[in-house]
Structures are given as structure tokens and as C-alpha cells.
Amino acid sequence: MKNIAVISLGCDKNRIDTERMLYRIVRDGHAIVDLPDAEVVIVNTCAFIESARQESIDNILECARLKTDGKCQRLIVTGCLPQKHMSELKAALPEVDAFLGAFEYDRICSEIDRTEYRSNVDTDGYSAFCADENCGRVLTTFPHVAYLKIAEGCNNKCTFCTIPSIRGSYRSRPISDIVSEAAGLVKDGVRELILVAQDVTRYGTDIGVSLIGLLDELEKLPVDMIRLLYCYPERVDDELIERIASSRKIVKYIDIPLQHASDKILKLMNRKTTGAQASELIEKLHARGIAVRTTLMVGFPGETQKEFDELCEFVRRVKPEYAGVFAYSKESGTPAARLPEQVKRADKIKRVKTLGAICTDVTREFNKSLVGKTIDVLYEDVDFDKNKFVGRARFQTPSVDGCVYFECAQADVGKSYNVKITDCDDYDLYGVCSDDDT
Hints:
alpha/beta; Rossmann fold; pyruvate-formate lyase- activating enzyme; CATH 2.40.50.140; six-stranded parallel β-sheet; five-stranded parallel β-sheet; 34% helix; globular
């Protein structure tokens, strides 16, 4: 038995891969410990953009110091960074004892047990899916919440994106496999399933099934909430909107990465939706009471003040409840990296701040509209500084959409409460429990 510490970086899809590794590690009799006590350290990396790669490298170097200053005997790097940059990493990071790609998590225990130095592990390319997808997981979320990966890879070929070169083409999991995993999670106490993939709405197009068909089966499970993230706008059709609006279990919330609103920039990005179509889509969703989260990219090559102003006006007009704003990152090997009219870094930073302030204003306006109303809140934690319970409304995804601070005589983690909203700030809501748990 060895003491193992695991650092997981990047998206929620990467989190799921880490949870599968943790299951294998525990199943083999090893102990999960904090970093200072670890004999083996594993860093599961992200390589999506430059800042993510730098964060991964920084964490690897910090962990490498534990081989001289701590108890670490073996350092293993896994995930997207070695999948994309294996040869460069081997040369640049001799401190690392083994590299495993994004589809080699079934080899983690053999690398933990290996005693000799070895940094020449090769990735196996794009396997059919992650190794043994029906393997168990050690959840790193609250026990009542779990992310559920329904597909791997991407076919959308956005000109700025490196994901297809890292994760391969789109591959859907069979419905039976997903439902089997979901049933096990629900049996273990999960109340909220959050569906993720590079493109959730493309699910099943490669294997002759559909997202609606998957939702049909998931809704049969005794789960309270099903949440949809990463839904591409061109595939959010009237059937899906109606399903979200009418379902008792699918939350009235959808995450749609729009990226931009200028037709010129959207075309350069190889996106399939126009600004007008995006506006119409959000109007449809809002008309059915469905909250919208989106991501927006500024500073894409060719974005002048005119196109940026279009994007700002779009946000003010359609009012997505939540939005994340990011600066374009020039990624080697992508078509966008070869485009002319690359935007200066200073202009990117300025535009992020400007659009971010507009998005904050929109979210604050949404929050103010809830003051005086009673909403359903899932209790998750305690904030001792604020002396309040902390939970989430159905229109809030963990870690990204703010939360609800509320007062209550007593609350049990993972249960829902009716909370009357009494105040708000830019991101969070504040209220008082108006009755016993529901």
C-alpha cells in the first residue's frame, strides 16, 4: 500500500477521469492522502489553452520539489497534456517518472507499483473510449451531485479549438452503459446528474440514437435533477426546448457556448449559428422559463471594435443569466492561429474587462428580479464567516453560477428547502428558509 495524492486540473470531464483513477487506486488498496504525505503524486492535466498548459506545468514542477523536500518517491503526469505533447514533455520534464495519455487511466495502478524510473510510457492514441467506462468512481463533488460523461471527443472543428487533436473524434457511449452508471450513482445517494461532453447535443448521432432517447431513460431513474451542459446552439431545437420546459426532472437551465454574436467572427470561428439565430434561440428559452449560461470569447482574429460592440449589444439585449468571458488564445496547429489581424494582448484584456462588466450587470439584474420570491434551494455547505447555510437554486451549476446563502433552523446536506430571497449581490442570492425541508 502506498499513500497517493492526486491533483485534478481542467474541466469537469477531466474531473470524471480523475474520479475513475481514484477508484482504481483505492480498489488496489492504496490510501488517498494530502500532498505533503504522499509517496506517489499524480497530476491529471489540462492542455486546452496556453494558460491551462502553464497551470499544468506549474503544478508538475511544484510537485517535483516534493521528491527532494518531501516524501514523494514517484511523480506521474496524466491526461490531455501528455496526450498532446508527449515527446516535448519527456525532454523537458525529466523529474516525471511516467506519463499516461488521456485514455490510459486503466494503467495507473501498474505505474504506481513500478519501482524503476521510467518516463517512456507511450499513449495508445484514441481508444474506443476511456478505459473501462463502467468502472466505479470516487466522487470529488458533494455526494448528492455527480457529473455524467456521455461522449468523448468532438467533430465540430471550431477553428480556435485543440480538443479534436487531443481527444479525437466524437464517440457516444451506449445508452445502456450511461444508464447503468447513472443508476449506480443514484443508488449511492446522488440526487443531481450533470450531463457533460464536448457537445452534449450531438449525443447519439454516431450510433443511431438521440439525446432525447437518453433523457427518456435517465428520467425513469429515481433522481431529482438532470442538468445539461455544453449544448451547441444549432442543435438546441424545439423538441429539446419543449422537453426541458415540460420535464419534472430536467432543470430549466441550459449551458450553450455561443462564443460570439458577430456573423463575421462566427464564420471565422467555423461556428454554425448566426447572431440572429442565437438571439432567437435565447428568446425561445426565456419564453419557456429556461435560464441560460453561455461562454463568450473576445479578441478573436479579425475582431475590430465594430464586432466587439456587436457582442456587447447582444448581451445587453438577450440577457443570458450567466456568462463566462474569455480572451482568445492563439493555439499552434489550429486554423485560427494562421488568420491575419491577430488582436493585441492589451486589447484582449480591455475587452474581457468591458464585456465582463456588462455580463455582471445582466446577472445582477436577474438576481434583483428574484428578491421577494421563494425558490427551491439544494443545501450543500456552511459559510461560517457569513454564519449562513449555502445552497444552489436549480438555475445554478456548481462552482460557476453563484450560490444562495440562507438562514434556517436546521438543514441537512443534499436536501432541498424553500427559501425566500431577501437580498442579492452581483453573483449570489440571500434568503431565509420559509418552511421545513421538501
